[in-house]
Amino acid sequence: GIALHQAKAEGRRCHRVYRPALREAAQQVRLLRGALHDAVRLGEFVLFYQPQVSLADGSLVGAEALLRWRHPRDGLLAPAAFLATLESSSCAAEVGDWVLEQACRQAVRWRAGGAPGFRIGVNLSAAQFQRGDIAETVARTLVRTGLPPAGLELEITETIVLRHDDVALAPLARLRALGVGIAFDDYGTGYASLSLLKRYPLTRLKIDRSFVTGMTSSRRDETIVRAILQLGHGFKLDVIAEGIETEREHARLRAKGCREGQGFLFGRPMPAEAFAALYGLDGGAAVPAAAQ
Ligand code: C2E
Ligand code: MG
Ligand code: MG
After folding, report:
1. Beta bridge partners of residue 22, listed in sequence order
2. 277 CB contacts (<8 Å, ≥6 apart)?
3. What distance in Å separates the CA atoms of residue 166 and residue 266, rounded to the nearest whole number?
4. pLDDT digits (tens, 9 = 90+) for 262-285
C-alpha cells in the first residue's frame, strides 16, 4: 500500500528508517477509510451551500454544494480532512451520487421557493468517472429530482480530466448536449489548460482563488485574471471568480468585466437552513436523505 509505495519512491536506504512512521500512516488511512464507510451508512455527511452572486448587484445566481462530515467525535470536518482518503476508498462514487442527488433536490426546492433561475454547482470526483456511468447517473438524477438540466453545473478539475481523458470526454459531451453546465474548477492551477479548452464541452471557467487573492497586490496575478477573462470571452464561456474576500477584489473583478463571483465577502459555505434564511427562500429545511 502507501508505505511500500513511499518507501520505493524514497529509495532503499530510507526504507528502513521510515518504516515505523509509514506503517503508522498507513494504519491511519485504514482507520479513516473504515470511519468513512461508517459515515456513509450512518448518514454523517451533509452539504453546505456557498452563494454565487452577480458582481453587478450582488443578486443570487446559484450556489456551490460543498461536502462536510459531521464526525461523531471531531465535529464538523471540511474536505481537506478526508477527501483524499475518500477518493481512494470503494465508497467514493457512492458518496458522489449522494452529493449529486441531495444538491439537485435542494436546488429544486429553492427554485420553487423564490429563486426560479437558481443553479447548483456540484463537484465531481475521479471515482465517478472511473465507474463509467456518470452521464446516465446524472441524467437519471435530473429526471428523478425534476431539476432542469440548466439548473445543474458540474465542476470538474484539470486533474480529473487529464488523468481520465479517455473516460471523461464522451460522458461530458453527452451531458453538455442535455443542457447541463460544465465548469472548469480551480482554473489556471493545473496543466495543459489551454489545449483542454479546445476539446472539452465547457460552459464556464472558475478563476482559482489564489489568483483572486493575489490580484490586488501582484501584477502577475492580475495579468492571469485578465487573461482568463479574455479566454472566457473568446471561447464564449461564462466566468466566475472564486474566493472573493474583499470589496477591493470585488471592484477590480467587476471593472475587468467578470460577471459572477463567489467568496467569503458574499457568504461562507453554510447549511441549507441558513442559506434559505439569508436569501429569504422557502424550502430551506434539510432534505431528507434519499433511500440508500
Ligand atoms: P472547490 O470546489 O474549489 O471549492 C471552493 C473551496 O474554497 C471551498 O472549500 C470553499 O469553502 C472555499 N472558499 C470559498 N470562498 C472562499 C474565500 O473567500 N476564502 C477562502 N479562504 N476560501 C473560500 P471546501 O468546502 O473546504 O472544499 C475544498 C475542496 O474540496 C473543494 O474545492 C472541492 O475540490 C472539494 N469538494 C468539496 N465538496 C466536494 C464534493 O461534494 N465532491 C467532491 N468530489 N469534491 C468536493
Ligand atoms: Mg468547486
Ligand atoms: Mg475551486
Report:
1. none
2. 284
3. 38
4. 999 999 999 999 999 999 999 765
- Closest approach atom of ligand 1 to CA 208: 3
For the chain, the first-to-last Cα distance in angstroms comes to: 30
Question: Which residue's alpha carbon is nearest to atom 16 within ligand 1?
Answer: 243
Whether residue 20 has pLDDT greater than 90 = no
- Say which range, 53-67, 147-161, 234-248, has the weakest mean pLDDT: 147-161
CA 220 to chain centre: 26
Ligand 1 pocket test, candidate residues 123, 244, 275, most atoms within 8 A of CB: 123
- pTM (two decimals): 0.91
What is the enclosing helix (H) or strand (E) of 85?
Answer: helix 83-87
Is the shortest distance between the CB of 46 and ligand 1 below 6 Å?
Answer: no
- Compute the 3-state secondary structure of the chain and give helix, strand, coil in percent, each to the nearest 5: 55, 20, 30
Substitution candidate for ligand 1 out of 48, 52, 66, 163 with most atoms within 8 A of CB: 66
From CA 186, how far away is CA 156, in angstroms rounded?
9
Atom 4 (ligand 1) nearest CA: 66
Residues with CB under 5 Å of ion ligand 2 are 123, 155, 185
Gap between the Cα atoms of 272 and 33, Å rounded: 27
Encode pLDDT of 145-163 as tens digits: 999 999 999 999 988 887 7
